[in-house]
Design a protein that fits this description.
379 residues; mainly alpha; 2 domains; two-stranded antiparallel ribbon; 66% helix; extended
């Protein structure tokens, strides 16, 4: 028996070593495959000078975000996809173009925010309505719920706070009439290929080349991705839809809330749905949250791109510290994806950062499978 135990321990040790070796060699194989893959990211200038349609703060903002990203992408490609060029993104990037693009993002983000000032005011009104509806009730259990035994919950309705909710909702539902809430849509504009200067058009054709397996590339579609990839119009329309939903539901929910009992109790293993008036408050709160999120989608995009532009400009102009290439490309591409969530350009946020995790995951998986396979066959 002792000999069998010793043999089993020896076998497991050998199987473990074999699993580690397999994982080690697999990691080399995966690294070799990744090394053969092209690291070049798609690079396309915005060609905003060839724009047909209204050239307003919105189109200038999105063009600047695109050009800011492409300044980093061009430097990334020079360092990581053209092996004859040494250096880093920071030492290779065209600082003049990058700084100009970053300043454009900041200036046009401010101009676009001013154009959408009504949504900022609306957001403040939404905050007041949210606070008012959440102040209507206090829910307390008689003891801490454990998810198994039944607990008594007490729902206390604060009737004195209903007038504040009514006023907050009145201010909110009249916003359509009292505030300027334009739906900005840059997709009516287009970059006209025929308006691009001859040398720049030739460069564009060379940059685009052909698609996978020699497929034709739609140059007009690709060069307009900074327009087609935007979602600001649908995000702003979502704000209007959410506001309309509140307007249609507010009176009904208020009627139920006003008829609430001062105190109601209910039992459950976790917090129950509560009395009808409480449920009406929950539904109203959910509608307000939808409106909050819709507004936040637009404001967070504008603030995020402006923050990225300030970060990239600060890095590029700081002679003391050289930031890692991965930080540059990640910051730029995250801003790009925020501004152009529907773009078809295949930009990766941080290719070099993702690689170690991919290699490690594949290596560990193969090593573990090898170990388990040996144990199953010979253990």
């Amino acid at each position: 028996m002792e000999m069998d135990s010793s043999l089993s321990e020896a076998f497991l040790a050998v199987a473990g070593v074999v699993g580690i070796l397999v994982g080690f060699f697999v990691s080399f194989a995966v690294s070799a495959v990744l090394d053969r893959q092209p690291k070049q990211l798609p690079f396309l200038p915005s060609h905003a000078e060839a724009l047909e349609g209204e050239h307003d703060a919105a189109t200038r903002f999105f063009a600047a975000v695109h050009d800011m990203t492409m300044a980093i992408v061009e430097a990334w490609n020079a360092v990581h996809a053209r092996t004859q060029i040494d250096g880093s993104v920071e030492s290779t990037v065209h600082r003049g173009l990058l700084v100009a693009a970053c300043e454009g993002v900041e200036a046009e983000a401010a101009a676009l925010t001013a154009q959408l000032a009504g949504y900022v005011e609306l957001d403040q009104r939404v905050g007041l309505a949210a606070a008012a509806v959440r102040a209507l009730w206090t829910v307390t259990p008689d003891r801490e719920p454990d998810g198994e035994s039944s607990v008594e919950f007490t729902f206390r309705h604060h009737a004195s706070r209903v007038p504040a909710l009514e006023e907050a909702l009145r201010q909110l539902i009249t916003s359509v009439d009292s505030l300027s809430l334009p739906v900005v849509d840059v997709r009516h504009a287009r970059v006209a290929i025929e308006r691009i200067d001859g040398p720049d058009r030739l460069l564009l054709e060379r940059l685009l080349g052909s698609g996978a397996e020699g497929e034709e590339v739609d140059a007009a579609d690709q060069v307009n991705q900074w327009i087609l990839g935007t979602r600001i119009a649908s995000d702003l329309q979502r704000v209007h839809h959410a506001l309309a939903a509140i307007r249609s539901q507010a009176a009904h929910h208020l009627h139920r809330i006003e008829g609430a009992d001062a105190v109601t109790t209910a039992w459950g293993t976790r917090q129950p749905a509560g009395p009808p008036a409480f449920q009406a408050s929950v539904l109203l709160d959910e509608a307000i949250v939808d409106l909050e999120r819709a507004i936040g989608q637009v404001t967070s995009m504008l603030h995020g791109c402006a923050d990225a532009s300030r970060t990239l400009r600060r890095w590029a102009l700081d002679p003391e510290v050289e930031e890692p290439d991965e930080d540059y490309i990640e910051t730029a591409v995250v801003a790009y994806r925020s501004a152009f969530p529907e773009s078809t350009l295949d930009l990766h946020p941080a290719p070099a950062k993702e690689r170690p995790f991919l290699v490690a995951a594949v290596a560990v998986s193969f090593g573990l499978l090898t170990f388990l396979g040996l144990v199953a066959l010979f253990g």
